[in-house]
């Protein structure tokens, strides 16, 4: 792969990373969509791309995809509970299938993929993996043997940058969630202070006791108070 192509890939992904910092949280799916669209252009032989998210509970979903086949193949992976994208994320950083018809590692997956799609080649790259979930960036082709060493190299470069972008998005999402929770708790405290003429510390103790008594997260108690604007059960602030 030429240096100029490498630089082009890096610049494209860098632009998307910059977008993560400027877009609203609701635009994350759009950023992922742009990533997969761009990725197909830079991996020789690729006709489709998709991002697979899977959990330890066995649930698999498609976070972004070009065309319908990545989603169908993710559905098959969930159905048969294995496949190259899951293996790339949980077990290895890179997985390649040269031909679905001769692949021996995931017979059930390959059999269903051949029945339900025209896909013959797959190359999958790990984006991230933690104790609960994993992510993989995948490329697909209707031609057997579509992905050579150069295509794998291009995919690795894209996946490396994409992994950084994914980390930034997850961190941003967690930050926004924390801010939203803080705001809800603050609103609930304010309502309690006004209703019962108590100070901020006493209001927070009320929320804590309501949370403990109902075995419900504090933020959910706060959300209920703010949403319904109903008088909560009497709880001593002493």
Folded structure, characterized:
One of its GO terms (molecular function) is RNA binding. By secondary structure, this protein is of the alpha+beta class. Helix content is 58%, strand content 15%. It has helices at 3-22, 28-42, 69-80, 84-90, 107-116, 149-196, 200-214, 218-228, and strands spanning 48-55, 60-65, 94-97, 121-129, 133-141. The protein has a five-stranded antiparallel β-sheet, sandwiched between helices. The longest helix is centred in the C-terminal third of the chain and has 48 residues, at 149-196.
What value does the Rg take, in angstroms?
Answer: 24 Å
Assign the CATH architecture of the largest domain.
2-Layer Sandwich
Beta-strand fraction estimate: 15-25%
Distance between the termini: 70 Å
Element order, helices and strands? HHEEHHEHEEHHH
Keywords:
GAF; 2 domains; transcription regulation; Antar domain protein; 5 strands; elongated; 8 helices; RNA binding; GAF_ANTAR; Arc Repressor Mutant, subunit A; 58% helix; 5-stranded antiparallel β-sheet; Beta-Lactamase
Compact summary:
GO terms for molecular function: RNA binding. It contains eight helices and five strands.
Give the secondary structure arrangement, pairings included.
Elements lengths: L2 H20 L5 H15 L5 E8 L4 E6 L3 H12 L3 H7 L3 E4 L9 H10 L4 E9 L3 E9 L7 H48 L3 H15 L3 H11 L10
Antiparallel strand pairs: 1-2, 1-5, 3-4, 4-5
Helix pairs in contact: 1-2, 1-6, 2-6, 3-5, 6-7, 6-8, 7-8
């Amino acid at each position: 792969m030429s240096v100029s192509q490498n630089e082009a890939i890096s610049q494209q992904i860098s632009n998307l990373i910059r977008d993560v910092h400027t877009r609203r949280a609701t635009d994350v799916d759009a950023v992922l969509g742009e990533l997969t669209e761009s990725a197909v252009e830079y991996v020789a032989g690729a006709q489709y791309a998709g991002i697979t998210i899977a959990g330890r509970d066995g649930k698999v979903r498609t976070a972004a995809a070009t065309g319908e086949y990545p989603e169908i193949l993710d559905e098959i992976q969930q159905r048969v509970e294995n496949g190259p994208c899951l293996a790339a994320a949980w077990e290895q950083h890179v997985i390649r299938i040269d031909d679905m018809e001769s692949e021996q590692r995931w017979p059930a997956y390959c059999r269903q993929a051949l029945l339900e799609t025209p896909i013959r080649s797959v190359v999958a790259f790990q984006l991230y993996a933690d104790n609960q979930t994993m992510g993989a960036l995948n490329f697909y082709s209707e031609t057997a043997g579509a992905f050579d060493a150069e295509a794998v190299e291009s995919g690795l470069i894209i996946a490396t940058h994409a992994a950084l972008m994914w980390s930034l998005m997850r961190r941003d999402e967690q930050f926004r969630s924390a801010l939203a929770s803080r705001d809800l708790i603050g609103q609930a405290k304010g309502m309690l202070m006004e209703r019962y003429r108590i100070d901020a510390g006493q209001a927070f103790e009320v929320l804590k006791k309501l949370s403990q008594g109902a075995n419900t997260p504090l933020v959910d108690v706060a959300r209920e108070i703010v949403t319904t604007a109903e008088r909560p059960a009497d709880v001593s602030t002493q």
